């Protein structure tokens, strides 16, 4: 694995690496905003059935119209999805003559027919100016939006992962940033719900392409000794991005303006992305030695090592890698040999369960009964200490024990919530925050871990595969909540059990602490033999 020596020759931690990592990380600050945007643009405001059409010309106050239109539920609040078939005028008369203590029972004793919200819903928009829910309708949009972000990221993982191994990382980063910017802008100005879903789908695909390829470009231009700190440091961009989203959403209560606000920065990212250099590792393994040499000399010049750059003999230095990289590679190579197959299956389990439990918590903030802006800040802030701990753990204990511990601790925290009474919301929220922090640590670890395990020739195919598994987990997560109507404790058992099982599966992964980044499948096997 001579590329590490070449990187040291041109400067492994010089000015180029600082600028390269910084500019690649900047778009990641807004990726959390795109990924969790649904919490705000698709927030469900308090609502109830709209009044009957024949009441629109009446002189009734909104409170009086609500009284004769919508019955009360068991908690004394207006029903969300049912109304009287006909206005109950007698309730209005009784309300004017009854005592306040009797008002809550004004509709008791009457057996009246009810219907759905045939004239739509009315919304209490005191916290927000508008959401896509209030513009389109509660169940029409919410049921579709719950899984839509993950479906598109899943597709993007497959498409952009395979394309990156064939056409390079840099061009996919460029395309992804541009598509993200245009797709987000179009979503903000959508004139129909279908168009909104279409453009958000495009954004989700681009989100996957930008994230995966940016991480690979970072890992493939830095040396082994700083890989842990730099690799996990990129995760802090996502963490801070969650706090940025909460701040932007708090001051931008209109869903169109919010969507536009988190999309415009990607135009800037697209413009400066032209400066990025393609991965020299990938270029060498694709028999593009001339361009690889040119890029290495550019790095040497930026790092103030022009003389060392001119002495590079690429053909001689990477003779073994060039001989081993002949032929074409595809996603099938992830399963072609027993070693690669075992590693891919274990990584798939880790990514799927991490995403499954993570988004089961993070994508339904309203269930905690706390202000969604506050809980977004709490959920984002807990990632900071969690990622500090996982970074130190990966540096000293290694990737494998860190990955196992993060998943098992997350599962235990979620399972403990099953025995806490529902009335103790503070305790339940605290356990959920601990679980979410452990899952964020697991995400930070598995991104770096997978990038180190997959060799360069199929790294993006591998990252695309495990990212696809993560999106499958995220898509399944909301569906598991439906089981709550039948067996209330079952969703928590599944959310907590999955991370524990995948934490056990992670034991079978090889350790990569201090191991050079593999360029070929043969390099990966050599690392594995030295690790035994």
TrEMBL record:
Transmembrane segments: 171-193, 199-222, 234-252, 258-277, 342-361, 373-397, 404-420, 426-450, 462-483, 489-509
Annotated PROSITE patterns: MFS
Gene3D superfamilies: MFS general substrate transporter like domains
Membrane-protein topology: Multi-pass membrane protein
GO CC, any one term: basal plasma membrane
UniProt-recorded Gene Ontology molecular function terms: transmembrane transporter activity
UniProt KW Protein transport keyword: no
InterPro entries in the cross-refs: MFS_dom, MFS_sugar_transport-like, MFS_trans_sf
Cited Pfam families: Sugar_tr
Cellular compartment(s): Basal cell membrane
Cited SUPFAM superfamilies: MFS general substrate transporter
Signal sequence region: none
Domain Major facilitator superfamily (MFS) profile: 97-514
Keywords, alphabetical: Membrane, Transmembrane, Transmembrane helix
PANTHER family (alphabetical): SOLUTE CARRIER FAMILY 22 MEMBER (PTHR24064)
Name of the protein in its database record: Solute carrier family 22 member 6
């Amino acid at each position: 694995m001579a590329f590490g020596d070449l990187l040291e020759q041109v400067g492994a931690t010089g000015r180029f690496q600082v600028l390269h990592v910084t500019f690649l990380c900047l778009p990641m600050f807004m990726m959390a905003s795109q990924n969790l945007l649904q919490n705000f643009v698709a927030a469900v405001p308090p609502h109830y059935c709209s009044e009957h059409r024949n009441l629109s010309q009446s002189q009734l106050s909104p409170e009086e119209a609500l009284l004769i239109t919508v019955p009360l539920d068991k908690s004394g609040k207006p029903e969300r999805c049912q109304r009287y078939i006909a206005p109950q005028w007698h309730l209005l008369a009784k309300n004017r003559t009854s005592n306040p203590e009797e008002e809550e029972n004004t509709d008791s004793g009457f057996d009246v027919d009810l219907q759905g919200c045939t004239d739509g819903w009315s919304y209490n928009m005191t916290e927000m100016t508008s959401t896509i829910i209030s513009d389109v309708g509660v169940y029409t949009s919410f049921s579709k939006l719950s899984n839509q972000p993950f479906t598109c990221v899943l597709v993007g993982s497959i498409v952009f992962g395979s394309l990156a191994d064939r056409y390079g990382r840099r061009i996919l980063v460029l395309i992804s940033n541009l598509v993200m910017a245009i797709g987000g802008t179009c979503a903000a100005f959508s004139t129909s719900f279908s168009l909104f879903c279409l453009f958000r789908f495009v954004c989700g695909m681009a989100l996957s392409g930008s994230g995966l390829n940016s991480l690979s470009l970072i890992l493939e231009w830095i040396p082994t000794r700083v890989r842990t700190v730099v690799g996990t440091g990129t995760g802090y961009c996502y963490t801070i991005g969650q706090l940025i989203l909460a701040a932007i959403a708090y001051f931008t209560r209109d869903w169109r303006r919010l969507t536009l606000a988190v999309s415009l920065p990607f135009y800037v990212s697209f413009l400066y992305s032209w400066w990025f250099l393609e991965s020299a590792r990938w270029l060498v393994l694709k028999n593009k030695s001339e361009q690889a040499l040119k890029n290495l000399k550019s790095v040497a010049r930026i790092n103030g090592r022009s003389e060392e750059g001119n002495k590079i003999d690429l053909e001689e230095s990477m003779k073994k890698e060039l001989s081993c990289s002949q032929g074409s590679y595809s996603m099938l190579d992830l399963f072609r040999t027993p070693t690669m197959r075992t590693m891919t299956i274990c990584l798939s389990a880790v990514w799927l369960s991490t995403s499954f439990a993570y988004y089961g918590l993070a994508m339904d903030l309203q269930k905690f009964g706390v202000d969604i802006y506050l809980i977004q800040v709490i959920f984002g802030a807990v990632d900071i200490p969690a990622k500090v701990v996982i970074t130190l753990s990966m540096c000293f204990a290694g990737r494998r024990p860190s990955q196992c511990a993060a998943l098992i601790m997350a599962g235990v925290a979620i399972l403990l919530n099953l025995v806490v009474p529902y009335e103790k919301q503070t305790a339940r929220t605290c356990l959920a925050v601990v679980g979410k922090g452990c899952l964020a640590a697991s995400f930070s670890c598995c991104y770096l871990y997978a990038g180190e395990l997959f060799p360069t020739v199929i790294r993006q195919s591998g990252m695309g595969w495990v990212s696809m598994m993560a999106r499958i987990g995220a898509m399944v997560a909301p569906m598991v909540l439906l089981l709550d109507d039948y067996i209330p404790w079952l969703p928590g058992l599944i959310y907590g059990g999955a991370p524990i099982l995948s934490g056990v599966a992670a034991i079978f992964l090889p350790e990569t602490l201090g191991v050079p980044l593999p360029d070929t499948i043969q390099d990966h096997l050599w690392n594995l033999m030295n690790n035994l």
